[in-house]
Each structure stands twice: as C-alpha cells, then as structure tokens.
User: Which sequence fits this backbone?
C-alpha cells in the first residue's frame, strides 16, 4: 500500500512513538515537522536548501493556490512537485481554515462556503467536492478533508453543529476522492473545540468514515495550554494507534513535546519561517531578536551548537546589519537557521523515543523555553 | 607586486583587450563585470551562489556602509571579506557619487563635503582623508579616490572647477593611503563631464599623480550614447595602456561592448540585480518582464540557452507566480539569472577577444538588443 504507516519505536515513559509513513515521493520519519510553503514556496528557501537541513515533507495551502495562480495553472505546470522543483512529499490543507478566517466575508451553508476573494473580490463557492478537486489538481501526496474550524471561544451548540457538518463534509470528501486513494492519501480532520464530548464524538465519527490518517484541527487557536493537552488526550485515545496523527498548525518547541508525548506524529507551523523574517531566531539557548543592538559587533554565530549554513558562515553582527538594512539575505539566513533548529529538534525528539530517553531529552531541550 | 595587471590578448578589430589583474584575494580576468553589493550583500544572493555563476569580484559602497553599520563595526567583524563570507576580491567606491546624489542635502568646500545622514539626519563631514580611512577599515582589495561627480548637464566652468577639485582630492587620497599600497590598490578617477578638453585634462592630471588603475566616472548619467563613447575615446587615449581601466556604474549589454571596444576592462552596475527584483530578466533573446500574463502557464525556462540554477530548474510560469505572490524566491531566481547572464556575456566578450572574433560575437550578442 502506498501510504503504509509503521510505528517502529515506542517511548516507555509517555505515549510518544516513532514511525515511518510511506508516500509516493518517499518515506517520512515521524515525529516530523513540516515547513510551510503557503504559496508553493517555503518563503526565502530553495528546495535544495530545505533538503540540506533535512526537511522531509512540506506543506502548501489549497486556499492561496486556488486563488493564485489557480489550481489549473499549477496542473498545467506539471503539478506542485514539478512546478516547485521539490521531489519529496507534499501535504496540502483543504482551505477550510483560511476560508473561515475570513470571518464576515464568508457565508456557510451545509452545501459549502461562499466567500469573496481577498485578492479581487470575486465570489467563490468552496464545497467539499471542490476542495478535493483542487487538491487533486495540485497533486500533493497527502490531502485534507474540507472542514470547519470553529472559532475560539464558541458555544457548545455552535461547535456541535460545526463538528457534525465537518463529519458530513468528510464523507463527501471521501466519496469525491474515491479511486484516487493510491496517489493521494486523504486525511480526516477531528474538530470539536474545547468540549471533551464533542472532541470524542468527532474523533469517533471521523474514524467511522475511515481515513489512512487523522488530523486534529481547531487547536492552538488561543486556548490555554491545558485545554489543548486535554483535547489531544481525548482524541488520541480514540484515533487508531496504527495510523498517523497530525496536529494542524502547531507549534512552538514546547508544543512539539506536548503533542509527541500524547501520541502525535506530524506537525506544521509558520512560526519558524514567519518569526525569522522579523529577526526572531530559535536556539538551544532560547529565542533571540537579531535586530537587537547587543549583537552589533558580536562575531559569534546565532548559535554555537547549530551547524546550519547561517551558523557555519555568518556572525550575529553581520546578520543584525542585514536586518537593519532590510536585506533579503537577513530573511534567508534567519529562516534557514530557524527551520534547521525546528527540524533538528524534531529529529532529536525522534531519536530520544528510539533510545527511550524522551524525558531527559525534553528537560534539556526546553531548559531555555519556559512554559 | 600585489596588483600586477597584464594584458594577455588584444583584438585586432578594436581597442578591446583581455587581461588579468592580480589582487590579494586572487586574480581577476578582464574584461570583468562586478556585481554590486551596496550594503555588503549582493541583494538576495549568497557568496557561494555568486561563485557558482562565476563572479570574480564584487562591489560594496563606502557611503552606505559608513552610515550603517559603520566602518568600525565592519572592522570589528573582521573586515568586509570575513564579515560577508566572501573570499574573492572586493572593490569599494569612495562614497563621492552617493554624497553628491544627495544634492540639496550637501555642502561642498575644498576641504570636503558636509551632509546630513539620510538615515538619522546627523551631520557628517566626508573628506578625502576620511574616505580613505573608511575604505581601509572596510578592507576591500581595490579602493577609490574621493571625487566629485558633476551633474549632467553642467556648465563648462562648473565641471572645470569640479574636475580640478577631484584632482586635488586625488592627491590627498594618495597621500592618505601611503604605506598601504600593497594591501589595497587605490584607483584614481577621471571626471570632466562631456567636455573633451576637461576629460583630457582630468585624465592627464590623474595619470600625473599616478595610480595602479584608473576609473572613468561621470558617465551613464543621462547623456546621449555618442557623448559617452567620445569621452571614453578621449580618456583612454591618455590613460596608460598597461593599467586597468574601470568604467564606473555602467551598464547595459550594449554599454559593455561600447566600453570594451574602447579599451575598458572593468564594469559595475546595479542593473541586473535591481531590474531582477522588478521582474525584468535579460536573455540572449532580449529583455522579458516575468510579471507578464503571457508567462502564466509557460513551462519553458526564462532562457533555453542559459544554464543558471533558475533556468535549469524552474518554469517561467512558476517564476511569474512567485512575482505575483511577491515571494522572496522570485527575486532570488531573477537575480541569479540576470547576474549569470551579465557574467556569461562578459566572459563571452573576453573569449571573443582572445579568439579575435569580437565583432561577430558582438553582432550575435546584441541581435535582440537594439540601440
């Protein structure tokens, strides 16, 4: 089977597990962090640079790409992999999260969501079927069902209806994808907000429909961390143990441990790339702001314990100058470093599961990351 | 001698010559195009990428670097080469051109130029001695005298006084640089606007002071091309045949031929890098605008005859998308290509001098570049 998932090691200390997910573009070792390439490019990076730092799979956003350049253009250019010159796996989200982020701009019915393009104001109608068709045209290895991500906070009744609609849409997505399961794995999405009963219901309903992998959506939306942790525990107790679990849009180094120790396998977040462009860099010593004057004449690298291209070749002083001067190379070096840090961290987490010293590794890794 | 220049081939058809200029950071094969790294970075490129496309020497701007991060900061970070991670030759201009571009903001006396920093409004006094001291702190291989670049058009009397002041400043620069000639070659600059008598006077006066190389300034400032050509002929008839000649801030593919066939050896210009960031790319088929809708679904590279990273791996359609989406990778790929094109073109010119088929090469290279 194209998308076989095998759990290869388990932590004796937590629910953490290491595994391998097969895809048509090669295997993914989990737990994995997936850099985000919203508009079919991980901002400021080339595919070769992403490979050099060990990126195994990247994300692209259906919503943005459907608006521009349009999925038919991507298809005409050979699909996402060929267009981007990226030969490893790709995951596309369904566009649901972005559509609902538009808030006032959208109108939801059980049929789908009608909204106006933020690019040109034209009216667009996104349905489960259309979300699948777009993702088929884009051609990612892993694609997502079209879901509603309920706002936070929200009333129980609203979240219940929303989770029910997401489940109905999941069925329609699965039907629309019938026959394509060997080319693209369609993952279900569990919603349910911060309500344990709805999370459990949504997990059961999604598993009942049946998917080769399950995402957990609607977390890291502003809720207190214990809420996120409880939702993960409720959901992962229900999701099949032998299938991959993907915590969408998460997160910080601390969140990686929160997720992994509760059985999550996949993560994505714009944090390392977006914060890099503002000068914020993540290191084993904590977070630094490279714009800070304290770095002006510092000839040390961003992090002495990092072996990325930026840390091998450039001083904090130079990188600070590049940020002050608003040079593109500033974004490049900070992004390169941050992605290397996030990917290295996840690879360290994986190793600690295999070597069964997850807790020690966590304590050391988060020494400079207070909760 | 550190900065030996040898003319190794001459065109039998024109005054074009090929040569080699030795520097402390290695040899430069001439004629040469020097990419501009104004603020100690060639915008969007890494040093390794510049090497990959064959850049032999890059430029940095004294004026910008003195303002930010300040030459003392550059010195504290090990000088330009170490700070930028660039081990090949560097040339710094003297800051004269930028100071005079400020126009109303500056006040010129025979002592130097007083102006307000465009960054923070603070008052700065730039003199020939200070321009040399800054360039010594920056540590480039080739540095330039502090000159006045007269505006165009300008009256004969103004240009005469300006050229005379530039000559006096050149003497002061040479005196200020005494004892450092083996580490950094100080080039003189010929001014004189569009007046043949002043160009000749300035060339003679500068040669009389004596420098290891000579720049020709104040051209490509808006004058008709025949004016530039005549100035080059007047000046190069006077400049020593066995020393390098550098035409500052020039230019287009057409200008390269104009300069080379009149005996110029070195060129620099922001054209390939600046125009790349707006989507304009140079090819053997002429100039294209990558933002144009005609490229939307075109899976051909920018140029089929180009072997640069961008042309080896990406379609016009994808690059157009990246420009539309204002992605950093758009600037990277277009800059990469344009610099590769300019450097390849100059290397083709050099080969045509060695093989003595300069005119044929020029006709073919400019087939799609009407004057």
Assistant:
């Amino acid at each position: 089977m194209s998308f076989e998932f095998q759990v290869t090691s388990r932590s004796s200390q937590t629910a953490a597990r290491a595994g391998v997910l097969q895809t048509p573009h090669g295997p993914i070792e989990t737990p994995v962090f997936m850099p985000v390439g919203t508009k079919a490019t991980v901002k400021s990076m080339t595919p070769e640079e992403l490979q050099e730092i060990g990126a195994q799979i990247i994300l692209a956003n259906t919503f943005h790409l459907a608006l521009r350049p349009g999925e038919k253009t991507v298809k005409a250019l050979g699909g996402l992999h060929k267009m981007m010159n990226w030969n490893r796996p790709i995951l596309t989200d369904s566009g649901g999260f972005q559509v609902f982020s538009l808030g006032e701009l959208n109108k939801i019915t059980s049929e789908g969501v009608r909204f106006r393009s933020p690019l040109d104001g034209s009216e667009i109608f996104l349905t489960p079927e259309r979300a699948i068709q777009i993702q088929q045209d884009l051609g990612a290895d892993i694609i997502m069902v079209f879901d509603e991500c309920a706002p936070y906070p929200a009333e129980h009744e609203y979240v219940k209806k929303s989770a029910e609609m997401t489940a109905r849409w999941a069925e329609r997505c699965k039907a629309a994808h019938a026959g394509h399961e060997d080319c693209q794995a369609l993952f279900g999405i569990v919603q349910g907000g911060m309500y344990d009963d709805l999370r459990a219901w949504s997990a059961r309903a999604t598993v009942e429909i049946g998917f080769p992998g399950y995402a957990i959506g609607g977390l890291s939306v502003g809720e207190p961390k214990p809420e996120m942790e409880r939702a993960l525990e409720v959901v992962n107790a229900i999701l099949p143990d032998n299938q991959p679990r993907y915590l969408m849009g998460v997160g910080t180094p601390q969140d990686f441990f929160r997720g992994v120790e509760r059985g999550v396998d996949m993560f994505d977040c714009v944090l390392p790339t977006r914060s890099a462009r503002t000068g914020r860099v993540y290191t084993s010593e904590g977070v630094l702001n490279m714009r800070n004057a304290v770095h002006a004449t510092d000839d040390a690298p961003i992090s002495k314990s990092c072996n990325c291209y930026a840390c091998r070749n450039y001083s904090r002083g130079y990188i600070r100058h590049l940020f002050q001067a608003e040079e593109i190379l500033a974004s490049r070096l900070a992004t390169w470093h941050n992605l290397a840090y996030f990917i290295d961290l996840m690879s360290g987490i994986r190793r600690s599961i295999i070597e069964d010293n997850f807790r020690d590794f966590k304590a050391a890794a988060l020494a400079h990351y207070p909760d």
Residues 278-371 of chain A form one domain. The mean pLDDT of chain A is 96. Chain A has two domains: 5-269, 278-371.
